[in-house]
Write a structure and sequence with these properties.
Elements lengths: L10 E5 L20 H14 L3 E5 L1 H17 L6 H20 L5 E2 L4 E7 L5 E7 L16 H4 L2 E2 L7 H11 L22 H7 L7 E4 L5 E5 L22 E7 L4 E6 L5 E11 L9 E7 L7 E8 L2 E10 L7 E6 L2 E8 L2
Parallel strand pairs: 1-2, 3-6, 7-10
Antiparallel strand pairs: 4-5, 5-16, 7-8, 9-10, 11-14, 11-16, 12-13, 12-15, 13-14, 15-16
Helix pairs in contact: 2-3
């Protein structure tokens, strides 16, 4: 699309870290973004457009900035979201550095999100991050950590399009993919859909068996190690003989216990946030501001109010909610605008 519009383009593809301990056959899965099929497709597209094409090795940077914090978070009992840190440090951090080295003014990615420039009364510009037009593919949740400087140089050509339009244009332009093509999904640095097997390979020393208990201390089972479980988890507890479904409501590192309760029996009215980041503006210190929020990318929005103190905040929900796993990102919205977000701590 950008080539047709007359832009001078340079193609860049990253080589990122992938789990060397994973089963060899798993590395060729078509649903991952860093496999041989996608590499071939990128090279073929650049060749067809007659644009320079660079493959940049960022394995070390990706391991240090994305994989290591992910593992450390699970070791501490958290449930981190590595894609948010990856966008900030790698996809829009290192990529902008590479753009400078190549003499490029802007970077363009296939994220489903929108950026709008707004002129302020004092004559300066600020950049708003908006949800994508296609609500089913929206990825703005993962981008709340981007700075104004980063957003000022970003283009999201697909942000105002629906997925069906994108596929039609891909066929129109002759982008090489077959009828069995599957878009990349799940975390890219291990082949499995869920992280359990990956954690077992890399956190062996932290996987100490312990008790699964009810709130009253009644022991009803044994867990395989705290990092393998997350708040709200219902499957895989291996607690049999019960008439009511149970879910994880708390992990206690001190006693190495997992606390469970009847599904949906426990709720919260508020959640504490750390590492608050704001996209284009921020509330005043101590001010209580209404927002909608999400704790997962495409989950239903929840209504509440945020009171901030420095880079921390307290979000109070209008209605009681299910418990949230510490380490997840709570992202704040005003209409279609992504205002900011933070990491849940309690």
């Amino acid at each position: 699309m950008l080539h047709e519009q007359g832009h001078d383009l340079v193609g860049v593809r990253f080589t990122l870290w992938s789990d060397p301990l994973a089963p060899p056959m798993a590395h060729i899965l078509p649903s991952k973004c860093c496999n041989t099929q996608t590499a071939s497709r990128a090279a073929a597209t650049a060749k067809k457009l007659h644009i320079p094409y660079h493959v940049v090795d960022l394995e070390r940077e990706f391991k240090e900035n994305v994989v290591d914090p992910f593992l450390e978070g699970y070791r501490k009992g958290l449930t981190p979201n590595p894609c948010i840190g990856c966008n900030r440090t790698i996809k829009f951090g290192k990529l902008l550095e590479i753009a400078d080295e190549l003499g490029c003014e802007k970077i363009a990615t296939g994220h489903y999100a929108r950026v709008v420039k707004e002129r302020l009364p004092d004559g300066t510009d600020r950049f708003l991050l908006l949800e994508a037009t296609d609500q089913l593919k929206d990825q703005s949740y993962y981008l709340y950590g981007l700075t104004q400087q980063q957003l000022s140089r970003v283009l999201f050509p697909l942000g105002a399009m629906h997925k069906e339009e994108v596929y039609s244009l891909a066929k129109h332009f002759g982008v090489p993919f077959d009828e069995h093509y599957r878009e990349s999904q799940d975390l890219c640095f291990f082949p499995e859909k869920e992280p359990k097997a990956f954690l077992k390979r890399h956190l062996k020393d932290a996987l100490i068996h312990g008790e699964i208990v009810r709130r009253d201390g009644t022991v009803i089972g044994t867990h395989e190690g705290l990092p393998l479980y997350t708040i709200g988890q219902r499957r895989g507890l291996k607690v049999g003989g019960l008439k009511v479904p149970l879910e994880v409501v708390e992990k206690d590192p001190q006693s190495n216990r997992i606390i469970v309760a009847q599904q949906s029996a426990e709720s919260i009215d508020e959640v504490t946030l750390a590492d608050l980041r704001w996209v284009s503006w921020r509330p005043s210190e101590g001010e209580t501001v209404p927002f909608e929020c999400r704790v997962r990318s495409l989950s239903e929005r929840k209504v509440g109010q945020l009171t901030i103190k420095g880079n921390t905040g307290l979000f109070r929900f209008k209605k009681a909610q299910k418990r949230i796993a510490p380490g997840q990102s709570l992202v704040l919205y005003r209409g279609e605008e992504v205002a900011g977000g933070g990491i849940t701590t309690t």
